[in-house]
Amino acid sequence: MDTSCNVKRENENQTIEDLKAELHPKSNVKKVIGIVSGKGGVGKSLVTSMLAVSMKNKDYKTAILDADITGPSIPKMFGLKGHVVGNEQEIKPAKSKEGIDIMSINLLLEKDTDPVIWRGPIIGNIVKQFWTDVIWEDIDYMFIDMPPGTGDVPLTAFQSLDIDGIVIVTSPQELVSMIVSKAVTMADKMNIPILGLVENMAYFKCSKCDNEHKIFGESDIKKIAAKHNIQSIARLPIEPKIASACDNGEIETIDPLWLNPIIPSLKLDKSKQTKGDGKMTQKIAIASEKDFVSGHFGHCEGFSIYDIKEGEIDKKEFVPNPGHKPGFLPNFLNEQGVNIIISGGMGQSAINIFNEKGIQVITGATGNVNDVIKDYLEGNLRSTGSVCRKHQHAGECENH
Ligand SMILES: Nc1ncnc2c1ncn2[C@@H]1O[C@H](COP(=O)(O)OP(=O)(O)OP(=O)(O)O)[C@@H](O)[C@H]1O
């Protein structure tokens, strides 16, 4: 027996597409990534901020829409205090120190400690207005710090904004498997791909013994990702420097290397790709002695140069060291198109020249070059900032 009534509910045939709000006519955003989590406090805003910094460092024009209306932490992480300017027709986003465009409810409140106690529909409307009324000018990547959870509020945000993909943030204290399943179901319903999974607070690296301690026990994040066919996983440690950077509004000073494993999955669609074309390729040079990282940049035997395409090694070649006159090698490697240089040690003047040219320097690396590049691609290689001083290896590290 058919127990359903024949009256069609209003909106029954309305597709999710119909609910999508239009960007302001003056806005132009190429790729929109939503960052979601099962609950508050797991590091969703941190990952949103670090992804924005990471893409900004790769020369993309980047923005953050803080849709976490009841717990807006983005302005604090970037040290933004002032109010945004706007009128009835349009609002200009605030700019971070490094030039990331940011919109958050905290930039509209009288005091940033004022609580936001509105209910779901009002919150949904504010998120929508951040999308429709703010001028997002020529943005390559917009990262949306979504409201936590998988309930009504994030659902409305998903339905009204044109999101290209989501990144899920979890922490080991959560019921990770359940949270990921819920987020996957929500994304499936919306037909939005899951681009990556970030496990925040995955371990603590002790500065004395250099071991990784799994404070919350072993995680089965890889199994969970495989179950849901999520390819890209990044792990963030519990890191006091991160906590103090968040508290002091200095998130842009934190090197977001840990998130490298998921960066390739953010690539711009071909249809939307314009000036960002090709930036998902990288050229990484490792100062080498045969197959090992050289301790002395200037006097190394040569450079193992890797072409990286979408996170994978596409080509590797060995380029002999053409000579170590001061200032010569950084220019030489720049001409080769190198974006990142990895070495055991390096002199400060060489580091300065690389920095001026926008080439990232990672020092303190040791071991086989193939292991080092693997560590880099998995987000596990950190720069110690090791600088060779004159008295240690005169001339060898391009120190003067
Ligand atoms: N990996 C980490 N190492 C050290 N501190 C961390 C780390 N991740 C997060 N924190 C700390 O936890 C705080 C909360 O993180 P964050 O604001 O990103 O969480 P959230 O999931 O966005 O929470 P909410 O939704 O409540 O805003 C940060 O301000 C930071 O101080």
From TrEMBL:
PANTHER family according to UniProt: IRON-SULFUR PROTEIN NUBPL
GO MF terms, alphabetically ordered: 4 iron, 4 sulfur cluster binding; ATP binding; ATP hydrolysis activity; ATP-dependent FeS chaperone activity; metal ion binding
Domain of life of the organism encoding this protein: Bacteria
GO terms of biological process kind: iron-sulfur cluster assembly
CDD domains the record matches: Mrp_NBP35, MTH1175
Keywords assigned by UniProt, alphabetized: ATP-binding, Hydrolase, Iron, Iron-sulfur, Metal-binding, Nucleotide-binding
Pfam families assigned: Nitro_FeMo-Co, ParA
Keyword ATP-binding tagged: yes
Keyword ATP-binding: yes
Source organism: Proteinivorax hydrogeniformans
Name under which the protein is recorded: Iron-sulfur cluster carrier protein
Binding site for ATP: G38, K39, G40, G41, V42, G43, K44, S45
Similarity remark: Belongs to the Mrp/NBP35 ATP-binding proteins family.
Purpose of the protein: Binds and transfers iron-sulfur (Fe-S) clusters to target apoproteins. Can hydrolyze ATP.
InterPro entries referenced in this protein's UniProt entry, alphabetically: Di-Nase_FeMo-co_biosynth (IPR003731), DiNase_FeMo-co_biosyn_sf (IPR036105), Mrp/NBP35_ATP-bd (IPR019591), MTH1175_dom (IPR033913), NUBPL-like (IPR044304), P-loop_NTPase (IPR027417), YlxH/NBP35 (IPR033756)
Subunit structure: Homodimer.
The Dinitrogenase iron-molybdenum cofactor biosynthesis domain, residue ranges: 291-377
Lineage of source species: Bacteria, Bacillati, Bacillota, Clostridia, Eubacteriales
